[in-house]
Amino acid sequence: MWRCIVFGLLTALLVPSAGFAQEKKKPNIIYIMSDDHANAAIGAYGSWLKPVVKTPNLDKLAKQGMRFTRSMVTNSICTPSRAAMLTGQYSHKNGVYTLNDMLDKGRIHLGHLMRMLGYQTALIGKWHLGIDPTGFDYWNVLPGQGVYINPKLRPIGAKAKELKEFTGGYSEDVITNLSIDWLKKRDKTKPFMLMCHFKAPHRPWDPAPRFKDLYKDVKIPEPETLYDDFKGRSKQVANIKMRIGDDFMERDLQKPIPMMQGKELRAWAYQEYLKRYLACVAAVDENVGRLLAFLEENGLSEDTIFIYTSDQGFFLGEHGFYDKRLMYDPALLTPLIIRWPGRTPAGSVNSDMIVNIDHAPTFLELAGGEAPKDMQGRSYKSILEGKTPPDWRQSVYYRYWMHLDGSHNVPAHYGIRTQRYTLIHFYGKHLDMKGAKKMDLAPEWELFDNQKDPQQVRNVFADPDYAPVLRELRMELDKRKRESGDEL
After folding, report:
1. Which phi and psi angles does 251 have, rounded to 5°?
2. Do β-strands 438-440 and 429-431 pair in parallel, antiparallel, or remain unpaired?
3. Do the Cβ atoms of 244 and 318 come closer than 8 Å?
4. Which residue of 91, 290, 363, 454 is surrounded by the most CB atoms within 10 Å?
């Protein structure tokens, strides 16, 4: 009963007037979200990998639309990030803090709201929110993380164990095939929102057979901080077990780890890791191209907003790390490239601070509706049109919560990222790798001047020259934490 009442109220709020419907045709939306795709692994982002990385379709998309350089997440881990995107809320508001939390079955999110606005909706690929998808006209999802080779998916209406195996298939190809099939069969009298969620390039990195030797004879350039010694930084960060080489398993590289140590092991493992990771990216890029081609061939390009992003960033050797979680730029920043024909300036680059909780409010505005008041993000529709609001945010609040279940050794922390600075507080709560022993650690702080130190290696928290900046940032952090409703 209560859900019917809420739906009724939201429908009254969201459904646009008849006048709006007559005046304006609603755009279609294709939202592609990959998993753990670092922006450094896209040629258009111009990282140290640009000389070797092969992403022709994503590079083309960037030339046709807008590329964002400061797209960020509120919590750099898969399940919480996906919940944040759908609900437009921080983890402490939507209740999805860790990988083991489930989205509330009764929670109304972007999928429901777009349907109320007259959209036909589908979600295909990775869901990873612990419950069956809700709010979509159609879904077909991987069970949990899923696998790359011979993937199994479960369509809407099927029971939990009724999975269809795509023998001989590769996950990104299968997800794209299903997406194109849905586009062909959709109700063509309605605008659509398709959420195409790729598995790649999530660990373990299993490339499509056609790409397994793509980088075989390529020497992958190394990032400046591959051999970071963490001097002057948090002890908690220095002890994180995400080191390339030292913390890899044979499954990661599909070959035995040689009897090496130190820099020799890291240099060897980095090459093996990046070749596999970038080969997985190649399948993502190819299938982005397939979706773009389908739109063009079917006369849908001009009426469709095409978005490419990732659920979070990823360490590709920076600071010697792989994985994400930590509030350093490689994990905090995500790729975000958007093409809106006739509206986004082609080939434009934007440095405004966009957060993943902004996607839901934006899509709702694009659809002619308004975001519910409990959404904490803000629509960036005007930014897409080249007009940044004068009061747009100048800082982003971040908090990582995985210490709650003890499944990883990255310590609990929160902080803010401004255009220039990153302030991080490791507040001392931690669990060991087995989750059996709770440890209280000494709180630590890190402050980085990203303008002078873009690699984030010099902690200036205790530098007296930065005392005035630090005071302002501490106040801004308290303000953002309070405004977000985070009271823990």
Report:
1. -60, -30
2. antiparallel
3. no
4. 363
